[in-house]
Each structure stands twice: as structure tokens, then as C-alpha cells.
């Protein structure tokens, strides 16, 4: 029996970026004959790929990078696919010294878009992940993103009812809607709404609940893990979200979605992917303020807060869900 070709995919972070690699994972496993497919990421993101059936093994980096290199050398990989392309992944490629294919971040093109409004990269990030796979004859099957949840996953909430999931989190404050914007929309809706986010969003959700006249608001921020958050999104009838990882969870499950954009814009390549019912609401400035939304050229706390809540509510009632 022929030995399987061992392939290692590298993507250290973050949640959204790892989700966007899932089409590549699936297509490599299904299209490359006789392959054993491994994945390397940070330990804190292990839940994202834990139940992915297309992966034969996952490896995790916590703090000891030399230990990771030592363990991976023992695997004797035939191919490395670096979908992160940073200094750490480069060091790893050099240490493993085998054939490798590397993702191009196109940082100069992003610089031109942010600073001059010149967009020379029309591809979604998912499609750009496939560019280094061309020489391996791997093609995008256009079946979208994958999220696999444990069958035993459950949350203390009645998911059989009609409800909205609302992700109020974001990697930076500049990417988050304000409590005033969210309260306005909640007050107009006579529906249960579950708030999703990390521990940093717990107080924001509590503030919204206190201010709102809608008594069907539920705060799950910082209380549930990634799988449980994904479960709530999957069972919901509509997802509202900032430009953050939960947007891609909604895409994976083809949930009707409305996303909010300010300092970052869909043109950077992170819009909802192959989701037939997805709408984007952007602030009025026409180009991104920064690559990841850390800095804003318009407001000190983010131009996403210039989006009129009336526009958000109007879009919600336009969608049949």
C-alpha cells in the first residue's frame, strides 16, 4: 500500500481567519488522492476545528514554539501549506525544510486601498487562500464554509422559538456598534434577541438590556464558548453582527445576516462568503480606515457608530425570516 502524502496546513489565528480556511481544508482532503491532512493553530482556537472530519490531526501552539517544531519534525511532512505567512510560520517552514506553498497577504494592495481608495484585489480571502494551491491542482468547490458542532452541544435557551442572534463583539472598539444604536433597534423589535460576544462585551450587553424596553433580551457574552455561540447562531432566524468571526459562522450555516462595517470594509476581503441572504450596512466613508479596524480616520471611537439605527431596523424588517 502506498504511503499517504502528509500535508500540514498552518494558520495560527484568529477565529474568523481559521474559519475562512475551511474550504481549503475540505477541498484538499477530497481532491488530493491518498492524503493525511494535519493543521497547526494556537491552542486557544482548538475548538474551531475540533470536530472537522476532513482533518486527520490537529497540532497546537501555546507558548513553547521550539517544542512545536520538535514534534512536527517527527511527522516528516511532504508538503506545508502556510496560510498565515508571518515570521513564526516562516521560521517553521525553514525548520521543517520541505516543499511549501505560501499564502500572499497582499499587504501593499491593502495599503493602496486604505490610503488611496485603489482596489487592485477583488478576491475574497477564501479565494486568495486557494491561489497557492493551484500547483497542487486543488480547486475551490464553492460549497462555502464549514463549522462542525458537537451533537451534544446545547445552551440554556429555547432555540425552538423565533429569535435573533446579535454579535456585539469585535477585535477593536472601533468595529463595534454603540449601545444607543443597538437599543434603538431592540426597542422596535418584539422578538427575543440573544447577545453574543466575549467577556469584554458582557457589560455592554447588560447596559443594552437595562436601557431597552424589550424584555426579551438575553446576555450570553463571555458565558459560552465558540461551539455554543455557533449553536445559537445556527438555530436563530437572523444574525446581526459587526465585522467579526461570528459573521463567518453565519455564512457557514447560511443564516440570513446583516453585518455592520465602519473602519473596515467588505472590500478588504472578509465579507460574508457564499451566503445567499446577506446584507452589508457600511458607514458613509467610502474606503477602510485601517486594515484590521484598530484606527479610525473619522471618529475616535469608530465610524461604524455613524450608521443610523433607523437604517438597521429598516433592513431587519425587509428580510423575511
CATH level-3 fold name of the largest domain: Rossmann fold
Q: Helical content, roughly?
A: 25-40%
Portion of residues in beta strands equals: 15-25%
User: Spans of 5+ residues with little confidence (pLDDT < 50)?
Assistant: none
The tally of helices reads 12
| Sequence of secondary-structure elements | EHHEHEHEHEHHEHEHEHEHEEH
Strand order of the largest sheet: 8-7-6-9-10-11
Shape: globular
- In round numbers, the mean pLDDT is 96
- What top-tier CATH class of the largest domain fits best? Alpha Beta
Question: What's the number of structural domains?
Answer: 2
Provide the CATH architecture of the largest domain: 3-Layer(aba) Sandwich
Number of distinct beta strands: 11
Please identify which CATH superfamily of the largest domain we are dealing with: Glycogen Phosphorylase B
First and last CA, distance: 52 Å
Please tag this protein with its features.
single chain, 321 residues, alpha/beta, Rossmann fold, six-stranded parallel sheet, five-stranded parallel sheet, 11 strands
Fold blueprint:
Layout: E1 5-10, H1 15-20, H2 22-31, E2 35-42, H3 46-49, E3 57-61, H4 65-73, E4 79-82, H5 87-96, E5 99-102, H6 107-116, H7 125-129, E6 164-167, H8 179-188, E7 193-196, H9 202-211, E8 217-219, H10 226-235, E9 238-242, H11 245-252, E10 257-261, E11 278-282, H12 309-318
Helix pairs in contact: 8-9, 8-12
